[in-house]
Specification:
Structural class: alpha+beta
Radius of gyration: 33 Å
Shape: elongated
Low-confidence stretches: 52-58, 523-529
Helix content: 40-55%
Number of helices: 17
Number of strands: 15
Length: 596
C-alpha cells in the first residue's frame, strides 16, 4: 500500500492483476499483523478457495485449527484421512474423471512442533550453554561474596558488641547486596538485549523458495529480529537471577555470624588460620568447578568450529563462484504452457548470453540446495518382476527430476562424464532424452551401460505425467549435492524443457517460479562489477517477458546460506565459551589474590 500505491486512501475498490487474474482490493492489513506462520511477510492476501476447478495453491495447503476437547492426534489423523478419500471421490464426481491414483494426504500435527521445527535441538543446546555460563557466573559471585563475608565476621562481631541489632545488620547487608545486583543485572540486561538482536541479524535470512518447513530458520524472530524484545518474563528472570544470587551469598555471612556468641566470634576471628585454610579449599573447589564448566563450553565450541570447517570443505559438485541466479513467476501468464515456456526460455537466454561479462546461461525449474523435485522411474530393459510397488505406483526407483535448458550444465560447471549434455537439438519433435548423474548410473547399472537404456519417468503419478515420453539416456553428469551439504548425492534425472508435456509445465510453474542461471567472468577479466551484470541481466529478462524479476542471489550466497545455521551456532558457542573462559580466569585470579 505504501511502496506500490503511495499510501493512497482511495485504494479500496481498485483492481490489480496477479498473473492473468484481476483482483479487487478490499482492504489494507496493518503493519502489526503477526505473519510469522509464513516464511516471509506477504505483500498480498487473497482468499483461499478449495475448488476443484482451481489449482492456485498447487495442491499444497496448511490449515490451522483447534481440536475439540478429548480428541487425540491419532483420532484426528484418522478423521482427516477419511476426509481426504472423500474429497478425492467428490472431486472425481465433479470432473467426471476417475479418482487420482496418488491423492493428497493430510497430517495433523501440534502447532508448536510446526513452528519450532528443526530448531528444537539447537534451542536446547543453546539453553544448556546459557545455563552453564550462568552457573559459572554464579560460582564467581558466590566465591567473591563468601570470601568477602569471611573477612567480615570480625567486623560483624564488633558491630554486634557495640549494640547493633540483627535486623539493622541484615538491612545493611541487604542494601549492599541489592546495590551489587542492580549494578550487575541492569547493564547485563541492556547488553544482552543488544547482543541478541545483533546476533539474530547475522542469522541467514529465511529463504522463501524452500517449500514446507525450513529447518534452517529460527521461528518468530521477525524481520531483522524485530519481534525479539525484552518483555516482562525476561525482566523477571533477570531480576530473580541477579538479586537471588547476590542475596543468597551476600546474606550468608550474616546468618552464619549473627546467631553465634559475640565473644566466641571475636576470639575465632583473631585466630582463623585453620578455618581460613578450610574456606580457601572450598573456594578452590568452586573455581575448579568453574574451569570444568568452561572447558565443557570450549569443547562444544571447538566441535562446532570443526563441523563448520567440515561443511566448508564439502564438495558441492558444481562451481558456485561467479554464478548469478534470479527468478520469474510465470503462473497465470501466457508463458505457463509448454510452448510459452519454450519461447520465453529461448528469447531470454539469447538476450542474457549476449550481455558483456556473461560466459554461459541456462534455465531450470529448481535451484540446487533450495528445492528439488523427485519422481519414480521405470527402467525399460528390466523385468516387471523387479518393480517395487506403493499403492498404484510401480517403479524401479525414485530420483531427482529437474527440468533444464541447454547451457544449464555449463552455467554450473557441472561436467559431463559420458555421452553428451542437452543441446538445442533436443526439441519437442525429437525422441525423448534424459541425462542422469553418476550416482544413478552406479546404483542402477553397476555392470551395464546406462547409455543403452531408456526410462519411463513419473508414470502413474497423474495423467499429466503419463503423457511424458519414454526417454533415452544420452549422458551422465557428475554428482551434485542438490538437497544439502549434509546429504549424499542421490539419483538425479535432467530432462530438456522443450520435451516436457505442457500440462506438466503448467503444474510446475504454479508451484515455483522458473530460475535463470548465468556464469559471469571472474576478476580480473570481469567487464564490470557483479552488480552491473546482475542489473543488465534483470533488465534483459524483464524486457523479454514483461514480468518482474525477483530472488536475485549468487550461488555462492546460496551455498553459504545452507551452512548459515551451523555458522550461527558456532559463533554463539564460541561467544559462550570465550565468556566462560574469561569468567574462569577472573575466578582463578580472585582466589589466588585472596590466598596471597
Amino acid at each position: 500500500w505504501v511502496r506500490r500505491f503511495g499510501a493512497d486512501r482511495e485504494i479500496v475498490g481498485r483492481s490489480i492483476a496477479l498473473g492473468s487474474v484481476q483482483y479487487t482490493i478490499v482492504g489494507v492489513v496493518g503493519a502489526g499483523v503477526d505473519t510469522e506462520q509464513f516464511d516471509v511477510r506477504p505483500d498480498v492476501w487473497v482468499p483461499f478457495q478449495y475448488d476443484v476447478y482451481r489449482v492456485d495453491s498447487g495442491g499444497l495447503s496448511v490449515v490451522t485449527g483447534r481440536l475439540k476437547s478429548g480428541v487425540s492426534l491419532e483420532v484426528a489423523n484418522e478423521q482427516v484421512g477419511a476426509a481426504d478419500a472423500g474429497n478425492a471421490e467428490y472431486r472425481a464426481g465433479l470432473t467426471g474423471q476417475a479418482p487420482p491414483r496418488q491423492s493428497a494426504t493430510s497430517e495433523v500435527r501440534p502447532l508448536i512442533d510446526v513452528m519450532v521445527g528443526g530448531m528444537r535441538q539447537t534451542i536446547n543446546v543453546l539453553f544448556l550453554a546459557v545455563g552453564l555460563l550462568l552457573l559459572i557466573a554464579c560460582a564467581n559471585v558466590a566465591n567473591l561474596l563468601v570470601a568477602r563475608g569471611a573477612n567480615r565476621h570480625h567486623e560483624l562481631a564488633i558491630r554486634t558488641a557495640l549494640g547493633a541489632g540483627r535486623m539493622r545488620l541484615l538491612r545493611q547487608l541487604l542494601a549492599e547486596a541489592l546495590v551489587l545486583s542492580t549494578a550487575g543485572g541492569a547493564p547485563g540486561l541492556l547488553l544482552g538485549a543488544y547482543v541478541i538482536r545483533s546476533a539474530l541479524r547475522v542469522f541467514p535470512a529465511t529463504n522463501p523458495m524452500l517449500l514446507g518447513t525450513n529447518p534452517a530458520a529460527i521461528p518468530r524472530i521477525g524481520t531483522d529480529a524485530s519481534a525479539v524484545a525484552v518483555d516482562g518474563q525476561v525482566l523477571l528472570f533477570t531480576l530473580a537471577v541477579s538479586v537471588g544470587t547476590t542475596l543468597l551469598f551476600g546474606l550468608l555471612p550474616a546468618f552464619t555470624s549473627l546467631g553465634k556468641n559475640v565473644t566466641h566470634a571475636l576470639k575465632r576471628a583473631s585466630s582463623s588460620l585453620g578455618t581460613g585454610f578450610r574456606r580457601s579449599r572450598v573456594r578452590a573447589m568452586i573455581v575448579a568447578g568453574e574451569v570444568a564448566l568452561a572447558v565443557t563450553l570450549l569443547v562444544g565450541a571447538a566441535l562446532l568450529v570443526q563441523t563448520f570447517r567440515a561443511y566448508r570443505g564439502v564438495e558441492t559438485g558444481f562451481d558456485p563462484n561467479g554464478v548469478i541466479t534470479m527468478r520469474t513467476a510465470v503462473s497465470g501468464t501466457p508463458y505457463d504452457t509448454g510452448e510459452g515456456i519454450q519461447t520465453l526460455t529461448r528469447d531470454g537466454l539469447e538476450r542474457v548470453r549476449a550481455l558483456p561479462g556473461v560466459v554461459s546461461a541456462g534455465m531450470a525449474c529448481c535451484v540446487p540446495l533450495e528445492q528439488v523435485w523427485q519422481l519414480p522411474f521405470v527402467i525399460q530393459s528390466r523385468s516387471e518382476v523387479d518393480l517395487q510397488r506403493s499403492g498404484n505406483l510401480a517403479f524401479h526407483g525414485f530420483g531427482g527430476w529437474t527440468v533444464v535448458s541447454p547451457g544449464y550444465f555449463e552455467s554450473l560447471d557441472l561436467p559431463v562424464l559420458r555421452g553428451r549434455g542437452l543441446t538445442d537439438r533436443d526439441t519437442q519433435g525429437a525422441p525423448g532424452e534424459v541425462v542422469i548423474n553418476q550416482t544413478m548410473a552406479r546404483r542402477f547399472w553397476p555392470e551395464g551401460d546406462p547409455l543403452t537404456d531408456r526410462l519411463a519417468i513419473g508414470q502413474g503419478m497423474s495423467s499429466e505425467y503419463d503423457a511424458d515420453p519414454i526417454r533415452q539416456i544420452v549422458g551422465i553428469v557428475a554428482d551434485a549435492r542438490t538437497q544439502g551439504l549434509t546429504c549424499e548425492p542421490r539419483p538425479e534425472m535432467y530432462v530438456p524443457v522443450s520435451q516436457v508435456p505442457s500440462d506438466v509445465i503448467t503444474l510446475s510453474v504454479r508451484l515455483l517460479p522458473i530460475a535463470w542461471f548465468a556464469r559471469t567472468r571472474m576478476a580480473p577479466r570481469a567487464v564490470g562489477p557483479p552488480g552491473a551484470v546482475t542489473e543488465s541481466m534483470s533488465s534483459a529478462l524483464e524486457e523479454v517477458s514483461g514480468l518482474a524479476i525477483a530472488g536475485v542471489r549468487s550461488m555462492s550466497d546460496i551455498v553459504a546460506g545452507s551452512t548459515g545455521r551451523t555458522r550461527f551456532d558456532m559463533w554463539l558457542m564460541t561467544l559462550f565459551g570465550g565468556s566462560a573462559l574469561l569468567l574462569s580466569v577472573v575466578g582463578v585470579y580472585g582466589l589466588t589474590a585472596h590466598s596471597v
